[in-house]
Amino acid sequence: MKLIHAELLKLASLPAAWIAAGLATILPAGVAVLNSRSQVSRGPDAGFQDLAPGVIGAIVIGVVAVSSEYLVEGAESGGGRQITTSLTAVASRARFLLAKAVAVTVTVALFALLSSAITLTATSLSDATVSIGTSDLPRVAGVTAYWIMTALLASGFTLVTRSGIVPLTFCIVNMSVVSVSFLLTKLTSWANYLPDLAGMHLFLRDLDRSADIAPLTGGLVMGLWVVVVAGIGFTVFRRRDA
């Protein structure tokens, strides 16, 4: 527990993590209010679809939790890196990464639940045609799981690169500008089983995809991707010098 607490304190000390928290909680609610003013019916995914952009905050948290370990500190701090101190304090690299994963999971879950509450409430209040009740709680759990697994994927990619620039750029562009995964579905239906598209079935019901994937199946597929990427990241992290 002390190790997890230490990782949570590290996250709390990162300015980027607080920016991510703002993106995760405010951005979806703002999108929900703007969408509610349109005259277009959004169907069964009203509110939940607006939560998708908030995953950018989860991505940032997942990336900076790892990349911050490799940043070179200022001259007044000796010009070293946090990873050296971390591995000196924790002999087991497996325990170190597990504690970091738990810290990321807890943090992202908290913001996912908070964002869901704010966004879905804003959707209900601003659009009288939308009714959201207790029957939608499984979909809130789906949003939370999607955010957590996306953050863990981002952490896994960052473990391999040891830099936040590449995974952060790719993940954010893929989620907000041009979805490479979606473009690939035009070439092959197997692209629907890429983690971001498969995971969306956890909370969205009106997806225009070339493959019919059940929510549980989508979650399992995305979970498998997390296991594979995390396994690669751990293997690379264990075998190379800090």
From TrEMBL:
Ribonucleoprotein found in the keyword field:
no
Q: Which domain of life is it from?
A: Bacteria
Which keywords annotate this record?
Answer: Membrane, Transmembrane, Transmembrane helix
Please give the coiled-coil regions recorded for this protein. none
Q: Which residues cross the membrane?
A: 12-31, 51-72, 97-120, 140-160, 172-193, 213-237
Q: Is Transmembrane helix included in the keywords of this UniProt record?
A: yes
User: What is the recorded name of this protein?
Assistant: ABC transporter permease
Q: Which organism is it from?
A: Kribbella speibonae
